Every structure is written in C-alpha cells, then in structure tokens.
Amino acid sequence: MKITKSNEKVTPFGGFNFCHELLTENQIPGLIDSHFGKRVKTVGFDYSDVLMNHFAIFLNGGDCTEDINQHLREHLKEVRGLSVCSADTILRVIKELSTSTESIISNHGVAHEFNINMPLNELLVKTLKRTGQINIREGYTMDYDNQVVPTEKYDAAKTYKQCEGYQPGVASLGKHIVYVEGRNGNSQAKYMQEETLGRAFSLLEKHCVRIKRFRADSASYQQKVVGLVEEKSQYFYIRATRCAAMEQQISHLPASGWKKIRLGVQEMEVAQIEDYRPFNGQKSYRLVVSRIKRKDGQVGLFTGNTYTYRAILTNDYQWDNRQIVSFYNQRGSAERIFDAMNNDFGWSKLPCSFLNENTAFMIMTAFYANLYQFILARFSKKLSWVEETFRLKKFIFRFITVSAKWIKTGRQNILKLYTHKDYSPLVT
After folding, report:
1. For range 25-41, the mean pLDDT
2. I need a surface site. Which of 158, 214, 268, 285 has the fewest CB within 10 A?
3. Chain centroid to CA 427: how far?
4. Distance from C-alpha of 268 to C-alpha of 309, rounded to nearest angstrom
5. What values do phi and psi take at 378, rounded to 5?
6. How far apart, in whole angstroms, are the C-alpha atoms of residue 120 and residue 133?
C-alpha cells in the first residue's frame, strides 16, 4: 500500500455548512444577540458566535466542550460566517448566562436547591416561534416530567435512585423542550411542583402560546397542581396515585362496565368512574381505569382479583376511555426526549461544577436540540435520503460527514462536495 499527501483544505464535515446557512437565513444568530445583548467588545465573540460554536460541536460528532480545541477547530474555520472560539470561551459564556441558585428549607429541615433561569428559557420559546416550530394559532399538548441526571458534581445530592445527581423539571411541547428548571437530586418531583409549573405556564402565556392539553405522571397528582393545570389548560390527564378509597370504588365497578381493547400489542380492559372526588371530595373529575391480567396470578388485597390497575384523572368528558388511555400512553414519546438529551446533547456529561452553571448548559443544549429538529424538518422535505426521525448520530453519518472545500471561481465562492449524494435541492 502506498500513501500520498495533500495540503488542500478539505473538511470531512462539509454538511455543516448547510446547517449554518439555514440558521443564518432564519436570523437565529441575530435573535440570540438581540435577546442577550452585546458582550463587551474586548472579549471578541458575541453570544451568537459562542452558541453557534457550541451547537457545532454536537452537530459535528463531538460530545464535550473540549472537542472544539482538540478535533474541530481547523474544520470549523472553513465554515463561512462562523467565528471559531475556544472551549474556555464557551465555558465562560455558560457561567455568564447562569443565574443564582435559590435554597429553600422544607418543613422537615431539608435544604432544596432550585435554579430558575428565565432568560435562557425565554430564548427557547422565542426561537421556536421564529423557526415556526410553534405558533400562537394552535393549541398544544404540554408534557411535564422530572429527569434524574446522574453526576458527581460538587453540589450534587443523592436522588431517589440512590445516585448523586440533579433532577431538573422539564416541560415540552411535542419534540420541543420549552422550559427547564434546575433542581438538586434530593428534591422530589412533587416538591413545589405547582410553583415550577406556574413559571412554565407564565412563560408560554407571555409569548401567547396556548396549551390545550396537559399530561403528566403521578408526581402531578396533587390538589394544587390539578387546580393550576385545570386553570391553565383546557384538558388535563394525570396518572392518579392509588389509595384505599380508589381501590374500593374500582372493586365495585360492574363487570359490564369493563371493555376489552388493544393498544399495539397490549391487551387490556378499561372502565371509568364519572364522579370521582379526590383530595377530600371537593370537586368531581373523571377517573379512567385500565387493568391488565397479572402473569404471576397474584391476588390484589383490595380488589380481590389478579389484575394490575392503573388510573388516569382527567376533566375530559369528550373522548372515550380508549382514547384517553391511548393519549396518555403517548407520554412515552415525550420521555424519549430525555434519551436524546442524555446521549446526543451532553446531559450525561455535564461540564461544570455547580447546579446553576449546569442548568444553563442543559437549557442551552435544549436550544440546540430544538434547532436540530428544525434542521431535520427542513432538510427532510428537500432530500429523500434524510428522514425527520433521524437521531443525531445517523444524521451526522448520512449528512454532515461529506468531504468538502470552498473554491473561488468566476468571483464566486463555491462549495465543492466529494460525494455521489445530491445536496443541490438545498440551494435551489
């Protein structure tokens, strides 16, 4: 085998040029700078420069901030209109954009740490509106969940999973994260959830984003939370926490009230209690109950049969039981957001030592994840070989990694691609 070398400036990440061009055309850098304002001139880089560099790390196969120094700097210098900064600059901006952490002592003397970063969260919503990913004419389904992020940072606390880490609260509309609130690991999802959701709803209201349906797990099964989401959304669907009173009412449901359904490969039976009164019976709601035959044949203490029961509290009397259960089970797609954030956008490798800085990092990477969905949606409409369902790694292999170089001919800068794939629909 013989080897020859060339000094030509050829980058293996030629596809990133199209991503950067799309964001520039849609004025995303300008939106960033108008939102945060200009940085001091002596620092040399605007906020838009730094955030676009940070996004470029993930979009070009990196998984930590230092990759821009070690692997990507020379390649990113070949992207027209991108001012390339260092990893230290990115980390400094993360600290600049962080906010102070608030410590709250519970009635039991436990210290709970919360980090509320409204400026960065507002950028999430502004950008989604700018790119057309959300608009004020539609009514959206809002999902809320808390995600355990294992980490051994300086101020991380033990979570219910018995590991050190954080437990941020995350609100999303479909595939798009719209609000992230930092919480330390010892703060259970139920604790002060009403206040967290109130801030998320207020942010969306400020930008005229309407929530039609709210969906959450049993951590939201609280009287104050139910009251809040009933006020802020048209319908809510919350997994109900089972108790003796509920079990008793379920056991008295007539056999004729149960109907067999199939959702995917799962067979189950569903029924409902139309006048269910939780939280000391102050208000009536609908309780949709599903049951699945236990494989081990164990008999329930209260029900006296061999079924596993689950219940959904809702104020929706329009949909039938099957529609309610099917809609609630779609929370699984919302929970896949956490898988993407952990594995594609760095949540599993938090770069800073403190909750406030890591919360800023998590919101910034949520911003990048939203932009990635925007890029995918645009490019998949023009290129048959790009699909809107691509995970980041597949997109990098299929689209980003193409050898390219800029050449100048006829007073024009032309991007020369070394590939059989046709990228031309992106520039027509």
Report:
1. 91
2. 158
3. 30
4. 10
5. -70, -50
6. 18
Cβ density class 183-198: b for 16+ within 10 Å, e for less: bbbbbbbebbbbebbb
Contacts 24+ apart (CB under 8 A), 225-233: 225/193, 225/194, 225/197, 226/278, 226/279, 226/285, 226/313, 228/194, 228/197, 228/198, 228/201, 229/197, 230/315, 232/197, 232/201, 232/205, 233/142
Question: Which among 145, 210, 208, 203 is positioned nearest to 172, based on CA atoms?
Answer: 145
Q: Number of C-alpha atoms within 13 angstroms, CB side, residue 394?
A: 9
Indicate the average pLDDT of the chain: 92
Comparing CA positions, the residue from 427, 418, 421, 420 lying closest to residue 385 is: 421
pLDDT of amino acid 302: 53
- Under 8 Å CB-to-CB from 362, ≥6 apart: which residues? 149, 168, 180, 182, 341, 347, 350
Q: Which amino acid is at 78?
A: E
CB 289 within 8 A of CB 253: yes
Q: Which residues of 245-281 are buried (b: 16+ CB within 10 A; e: fewer)?
A: ebbebbeeeeeeebeebeeeeeebbbbbbeebebeee
What token pair was written down for 325? 């259960």
Phi-psi region of 81 (alpha: psi -120 to 50; beta: other; left: phi over 0): left
Q: What is the pLDDT of residue 282?
A: 81
